[in-house]
Specification:
Distance between the termini: 50 Å
Oligomer: single chain
Number of helices: 5
Order of helices and strands: HHHHH
Structural class: mainly alpha
Radius of gyration: 19 Å
Helix content: over 70%
Number of domains: 1
Length: 148
């Protein structure tokens, strides 16, 4: 148990691990949704696409928050964006396989997914900028305190 917790502590700042974990849980939720609805295709279609949006938002928020604890934020930024779009592609493929409705046929869900993707990029950029400003202010504060 101790080795598992050590492994999870090391991997929590790895965007690949985060994307795989979120994608796996989303896949399980989609499968359970498909099994529980069975014949009601229209309701199942909506549930599957809602799961995609929900887990994309989940990844976007927590991935961005975890970025504050990372030492090398530039590398983390690019890995996170790559993982987000890979997760997006896998979730879209899974949603198509489970619902039978393609991304282009998903209606307003298509627009919501685009807004989530754009929102992720904006939110991540804002957090990165704020983090750099805070680090710069801390560095300047240290310089002022050492000169006094």
């Amino acid at each position: 148990m101790n080795s598992l917790s050590n492994y999870l502590d090391q991997q929590k700042t790895n965007p690949i691990f985060q994307a795989v974990l979120v994608g796996g849980i989303a896949f399980l939720v989609m499968a359970l949704s498909k099994l529980s609805r069975g014949s009601n295709a229209e309701s199942n279609f909506e549930n599957i696409w809602i799961v995609v949006i929900m887990f994309l938002l989940f990844f976007a928020i927590f991935n961005t928050v975890i970025s504050l604890a990372v030492e090398n934020q530039v590398v983390y930024f690019w890995r996170s964006i790559t993982c987000f779009f890979a997760l997006l592609a896998l979730l879209l493929l899974s949603a198509y396989l489970f619902s039978g409705v393609s991304y282009n046929e998903s209606g307003f869900f298509r627009w919501i997914i685009m807004v989530v993707g754009f929102g992720y990029l904006v939110f991540f950029s804002i957090v990165m900028a704020m983090s750099r400003i805070v680090k710069f202010a801390q560095k300047q504060d240290k310089k002022l305190r050492n000169e006094e």
